[in-house]
Write a structure and sequence with these properties.
elongated, about 575 residues
Length: about 575
């Protein structure tokens, strides 16, 4: 061996040891976490050079092959925080070649497992499953029971992403049995979180909370900070599903603090996304946009396709709430394209449902139905009751706009039944509000008032101001039809106050229009005119088809005022 090659080999060996030391410091936590990350960042150029040399000479000598095998294993935790997944895949594939050359079967399994996780991050779910299955076969051949349990848990995650929840649960339960048999506390805690997620997906929130709480107790006992953050975040998911927004925010903020302390950018992005969703539900649009834009920025930095699609979907939803429908569509379309590219059914359904809502608002109703029906097929396939309920409600609204009240009520009732079956309180509030409006349009005003009141009660219990505002407007319309104009105007004023507080531009315009209509019904066109003109301005800004109707109303008010003045 030449002196130059010998020196390069010593260099590669030394920096493999540095990488291992940095990882050991980081994993030990506390003050050592920053020391490990700082050591890694300081020596990263030399670590890359050492790995490059080892990979180049993997077929020439056993020492180089051994180093090429070791580099991605020594840096398993830190490389995921700093490398792009595609670069991780390159290192891991080179490590797998080296492990095969050296006949190190256990390490082949670990490389395959890590390759699967990197492919998963890129959204390549089916490829991830193939790699996990290869790893599982090796773990069983070599008797690596803990490895088998870990891979089964990861396989469950991938099946859940494909919407195969029953299959995912079987993987998690099998993994859990192995973790308990081998006293693998870390593996048990992580699998409990995954199993809890699966139960949450099928609407069993009480069981989900219990499993996440078990996981949190275990991660605290074994001082697994990353596990603490993961469990806190998933308990927050359940609180959010139950409408306990402030409790969810508190837990997400704790999770965010842990992610930042661990310098976990991917975890930070996911938590920001979850926080954004809560702020959006509470009507705090600007805070939601800040969270989602931060998420999108990190997703772009990490080249995380799934994260980009999620962030774009979420940004679109907030812009919809602000009445900026064209801006929302400009987010939803690339979100759908990315979701299709990575074969993520859940993200595809989300983008399709969102596009349906957007096209509904600009009056393209047949296109909206097509998007909703596509979304519904996917949501039923992946067994997402919350998403299914939302789309059923959207279809009801579309048929209502098409003046097909019987079909509208049918879809709203399906949504209500599904929400009640799954304990989805927000879904119940929305569907009750929609049914209230449907009965108002069918001239059953007393039933409309009853249903709207039920919707308002649940919305107030959940602190959901958006749903509350809509239901107040629906109840006001029922009272106006009963000619109880004073009560209707009180309700419209409450609706207007909420819409302005939560920056719901369409809700604000609707409340103004409702007020104008109520005043016109009692021959107060002069007072109605100001409300109608304000509504028209907003409808024009947000490109709502209602602008044409309101424009005619404004002209009629002007004509009425001129005629009464001239007389």
């Amino acid at each position: 061996m030449s002196r130059v090659k010998e020196a390069r080999l010593r260099h590669a060996s030394y920096y493999a040891a540095v990488l291992l030391r940095a990882t050991q410091l980081y994993v030990s936590g506390g003050d050592n976490l920053d020391k490990g990350m700082s050591l890694f960042d300081l020596e990263w150029p030399n670590i890359q050079k050492g790995h490059e040399f080892a990979a180049k000479h993997v077929e020439e000598d056993g020492e180089s092959a051994s180093l090429c095998n070791n580099y991605p294993l020594f840096g398993a935790y830190l490389l995921g925080l700093r490398q792009h997944p595609q670069d991780q895949i390159t290192w891991l594939e080179q490590g797998l070649v080296a492990a095969r050359r050296l006949s190190r079967f256990n390490e082949q399994g670990k490389h395959l497992e890590n390759l699967a996780q990197a492919q998963s991050v890129l959204g390549n779910t089916r490829r991830a499953i193939e790699l996990h299955e290869e790893a599982l076969l090796i773990d069983r051949q070599t008797g690596d029971i803990k490895g088998e349990g870990r891979v089964l848990s990861n396989l469950g995650i991938e099946y859940a992403r494909l919407g195969e929840i029953d299959r995912a649960i079987k993987c998690y339960e099998w993994s859990l049995r192995i973790a308990r048999r081998t006293n693998d506390k870390l593996g048990e805690a992580r699998t409990l979180v995954n199993l809890g997620n699966a139960y949450r997906e099928i609407g069993k929130t009480e069981q989900a909370t219990g499993l996440h709480s078990q996981s949190l107790r275990m991660t605290s006992e074994i001082e697994d900070r990353q596990g603490d953050g993961r469990a806190l975040g998933h308990i927050a998911h359940v609180y959010a599903a139950e409408g306990k927004w402030r409790e969810a925010i508190e837990l997400y903020e704790k999770e965010l603090e842990i992610c930042r302390s661990l310098k976990d950018r991917r975890g930070e992005a996911n938590t920001l996304s979850n926080l954004g969703s809560i702020y959006a539900r509470l009507g705090e649009a600007r805070r939601a946009i800040e969270c989602y834009e931060s998420h999108l920025s990190i997703a772009n930095e990490l080249e995380d396709a799934s994260g980009k699609s999620t962030a774009l979907n979420n940004l679109g939803a907030v812009y919809m709430g602000l009445g900026e429908v064209r801006t929302a569509i400009a987010q939803y379309e690339p979100a759908l394209r990315i979701a299709c590219e990575i074969d993520d059914l859940r993200l595809q359904a989300s983008a399709l449902a969102n596009l349906s809502s957007a096209y509904q608002l600009i009056g393209h109703l047949h296109q909206a139905i097509e998007y909703s029906e596509e979304a519904l097929i996917i949501l039923r396939r992946i067994k997402d009751p919350y998403g299914e309920g939302s789309v059923l409600g959207n279809l009801g609204t579309i048929y209502q706009l098409m003046r097909q009240p019987e079909r509208a009520v049918e879809y709203f009732q399906q949504h209500l039944t599904l929400a009640q079956r799954n304990g989805d309180r927000r879904g119940q509030a929305i569907s009750l509000g929609n049914l209230g409006l449907a009965y108002h349009l069918s001239s059953d005003q007393l039933r409309a008032v009853e249903l709207s009141q039920q919707s308002i009660s649940i919305a107030r219990e959940l602190g959901d101001r958006y749903v509350e505002g809509n239901a107040l407007g629906n109840m006001g319309r029922a009272y106006a039809a009963l000619m109880n104009i004073d009560r209707a105007l009180q309700l419209y004023e409450q609706q207007l106050t909420i819409a302005r507080e939560i920056e719901d531009r369409r809700g604000e315009a609707n409340a103004l229009l409702n007020t104008a209509l109520a005043l016109i019904s009692i021959q107060k066109q002069g007072e109605a005119l100001g409300y109608a003109e304000s509504a028209l301005l907003i409808y024009k800004q947000i490109e709502d088809p209602a602008a044409d109707q309101v424009r005619k109303m404004v002209r009629a008010c002007h004509s009425y005022i001129r005629s009464t003045t001239s007389n």
